[in-house]
Every structure is written in C-alpha cells, then in structure tokens.
Amino acid sequence: RRDGVAVRAHLPRIVPVRGATPAILIALMMFAVAAPAHAQTVVTPLVSANFKTSPGFIDLDDGASGTHAGFGVAVSQLTAGWLGVEGAVMLTPSMFSGGDLVESSRLLTAMGSLLVTGPARWRVRPYASIGVGLAQIESDDVAHLFVVDSSHLAASIGAGAWTWFTPRIGLRTSIDFLRTVSEVQSGTFETLQWSGGVSIRF
C-alpha cells in the first residue's frame, strides 16, 4: 500500500499440464546438450506392446490386464564409447479399453533417457537405459462418470539391443518398465512395454 492506494500483484493462473507438447519437450531435453562430433544418430520407428499394467484408477473394463499394441519413434545419439542419450515418444491407443464400458482411452509417453551401451564395434550392441519424462493417461467411460485425463512425471528403466545387419540398417528390441512418480487417482500407474523396430544409423 502506498499513499493509501492498494496495489495487488497479478499472478498468472497455474494450469495443469495437458496435451502432448510439454511431454515431447521433456523427452527431447537431453538433446539440448551438444553431442560429440563423432556421435551417431540412430532413428527407430517402433511398434510396441504394453502388458502387466497397473492403471492407478478405476479400470471399468479391466482393460489394463490385457496386452495393448502401440507405436512411436526413438531418436538416439550414440558415441563410440559406452554412453548415449535418447528421446522417445510412444502412443498406445485403447490402452484401457476392451469391453463395453470404456468409450475411449490412450497412453502417451515422452521420455528422455541416458543409455549405457556396448562398444560401437560390436555387431550386437546391448544397452541399459534409465529415463524421465511424462505420461499422459486418458480414459472416458460411456456415461462420462469416471473420466481420467491427466499428465504425470514418470521414470523408466529398461534394457535392449541393436543388431546391425549393415553399417546403416539394424534391428532394435527392448523391454522397459515405466512408473509414474505421483498417483493417478488411487495409485501410481505402471506398465511393462516391449518395443521393436528397424533402425537407421546416420
């Protein structure tokens, strides 16, 4: 208050995180660090399967107990040594669907990961990963009574391997465990995800 006049600061309203854009930004944050000049970029379109899922909310169709297919893409920066970084975005449509009660559902994840890999000279190059990012979880029932639409900070750990058939073309497979840091409603979300795809090395 100055000279009898009240001054009130106008603060911006805090809006919950929604949509894919902030998730994608977090997934790609590790690429803000300059890569060594000899680093290789590997792009892998992926297909995936989620299973052994715990939804963390009322799953009306028990859809999480099934296996659900998805797709996505991973972009990796691999050095000649044993370290690398990666950004990956994966979409699983109908993640919690499977009966008559859930009208629509999906899982969208965007993760940035640190990779510990085998040497670049190996034809089969295994790796382990640890990552952080966002998981967007959506589920809507036919009566719109148990609607879930929220984004959560998530962490992941996984392992996989590249098998290189030529200097540029290879096959990648991996298995990852992902879990949200916070509760969705009644608990945290967690899932196992297998993924595989043809990798192109630049």
Description:
Strand 5 (124-141) and strand 6 (148-164) form a beta hairpin. By secondary structure, the chain is mainly beta. 3% of the residues lie in helices and 55% in strands. The protein has one helix at residues 21-27, and strands spanning 40-54, 68-78, 83-93, 102-117, 124-141, 148-164, 169-180, 190-201. Mean pLDDT is 87; it is low at 1-21 and 31-35. An eight-stranded antiparallel β-barrel has the order 1-2-3-4-5-6-7-8. The longest helix has 7 residues, at 21-27.
Tags for this entry?
8 strands, elongated, about 200 residues, about 5% helix, 1 helix, 8-stranded antiparallel beta barrel, mainly beta
For the largest sheet, list the strands in their spatial order.
1-2-3-4-5-6-7-8
Question: C-alpha Rg, in Å?
Answer: 20 Å
Shape: elongated
Distance between the termini: 62 Å
What oligomeric arrangement do these chains adopt?
single chain
What's the tally of helices? 1
Largest sheet: 8 strands, antiparallel, barrel
Helices and strands, in order, run as HEEEEEEEE
Mean pLDDT: 87
Q: Give the strand tally.
A: 8
Which secondary-structure class do the elements indicate?
A: mainly beta
* Relative strand content: over 45%
Helix content: under 10%
Question: pLDDT under 50 segments (min length 5)?
Answer: 1-21, 31-35
In short:
Helix content is 3%, strand content 55%. It is mainly beta.
